[in-house]
């Protein structure tokens, strides 16, 4: 199954897809675009496309596709299985954006916000379908930002296609509903099978919904904050919730050109972690993997 590679390495991200049905190479197709995981502070964001011949849209709707947010996890998995079983006329593709990629993109020197990242990812997936031989005729997209501007942007990029961008498109167009299911199933599996490279002992997976306002998620972030190196790779460190915890509980960095503080109540500098005195706990894996030892001075 195409998602098995994602389950083996969820943090790696990348593109995953079904085989292109031969019928989709011959007949005009409708293609839907949607995402899952835009808002959470934990886990990847997944963009998905789903496509089928225009003449098969009623059959696609008959599979019971719906906005993934209205379905239970079991129902999403079942309907994703139906989409895979309909592989003679239905195809899909995913782009999985890991937390580190999202944060690095948003915090780079040149401004690049989440809306731009979302637009670019959707555009790349539509182009991927075209490059794969899918005879895309119509594109339906769940909007990110103002729908009219997004639609104009896609029309300019794909002048030969009919493009419709609408809010709540996953509830309006079955082909977008199908993409919504694909995206949500992939994100859920990525979070479920996440391989923690950090030394968390028995992997701590009691992180709630992953949304910033979830008390269980906030507690998980607090519990798994490493004062020097921050959070596990599952966390989007550019989110305000994560940054606030780092500011409050992380070790401040004092740069060489800064004046040292005389305040005895100030929190310890990051340099204190390289002191000669015996460490109070097992060194972070960063030091262990590089066989680094404390020095008297730097």
Automatic annotation (TrEMBL):
It is an enzyme of class 3 (hydrolase). PROSITE patterns: RNASE_H_2. One of its GO terms (molecular function) is RNA-DNA hybrid ribonuclease activity. The keyword Nuclease applies. Its cofactor is Mg(2+); Mn(2+). GO terms for biological process: DNA replication, removal of RNA primer; mismatch repair. It comes from the Eukaryota. Keywords: Endonuclease, Hydrolase, Metal-binding, Nuclease. Its EC number is 3.1.26.4. A divalent metal cation binds at residues 34-35, 142. It holds the Pfam family RNase_HII. It catalyses: Endonucleolytic cleavage to 5'-phosphomonoester. CDD domains: RNase_HII_eukaryota_like. Catalytic subunit of RNase HII, an endonuclease that specifically degrades the RNA of RNA:DNA hybrids. Participates in DNA replication, possibly by mediating the removal of lagging-strand Okazaki fragment RNA primers during DNA replication. Mediates the excision of single ribonucleotides from DNA:RNA duplexes. Endonuclease that specifically degrades the RNA of RNA-DNA hybrids. Belongs to the RNase HII family. Eukaryotic subfamily. PANTHER family: RIBONUCLEASE H2 SUBUNIT A. This is Ribonuclease. It comes from Corvus moneduloides. The lineage of its organism: Eukaryota, Metazoa, Chordata, Craniata, Vertebrata.
């Amino acid at each position: 199954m195409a998602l098995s590679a994602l389950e083996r390495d969820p943090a790696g991200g990348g593109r995953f897809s079904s085989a292109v049905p031969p019928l989709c190479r011959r007949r005009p197709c409708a293609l839907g675009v949607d995402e899952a995981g835009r808002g959470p502070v934990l886990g990847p964001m997944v963009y998905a496309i789903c496509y089928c011949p225009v003449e098969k849209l009623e059959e696609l709707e008959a599979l019971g596709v719906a906005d993934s947010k209205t379905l239970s996890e079991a129902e999403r998995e079942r309907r994703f299985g139906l989409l895979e079983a309909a592989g003679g006329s239905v195809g899909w593709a995913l782009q999985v954006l890991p937390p580190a990629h999202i944060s690095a993109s948003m915090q780079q020197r040149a401004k690049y916000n989440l809306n731009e990242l979302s637009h670019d990812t959707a555009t790349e997936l539509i182009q991927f379908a075209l490059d794969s031989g899918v005879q895309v005729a119509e594109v339906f997209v769940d909007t990110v930002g103002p729908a009219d501007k997004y639609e104009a942007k896609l029309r300019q990029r794909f002048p030969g296609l009919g493009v419709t961008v609408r809010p709540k498109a996953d509830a309006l167009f079955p082909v977008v509903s199908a993409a919504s299911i694909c995206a949500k199933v992939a994100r859920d599996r990525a979070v479920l099978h996440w391989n923690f490279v950090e030394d968390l002992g028995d992997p701590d997976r009691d992180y709630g919904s992953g949304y910033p306002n979830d008390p269980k998620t906030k507690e998980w972030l607090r519990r798994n904050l490493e004062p020097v190196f921050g959070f596990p790779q599952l966390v989007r460190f550019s989110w305000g919730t994560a940054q606030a915890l780092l500011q409050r509980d992380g070790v401040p960095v004092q740069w060489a050109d800064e004046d040292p503080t005389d305040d005895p109540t100030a929190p310890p500098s990051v340099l204190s972690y390289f002191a000669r005195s015996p460490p109070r706990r097992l060194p972070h894996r960063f030091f262990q993997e590089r066989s680094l030892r404390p020095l008297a001075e730097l």
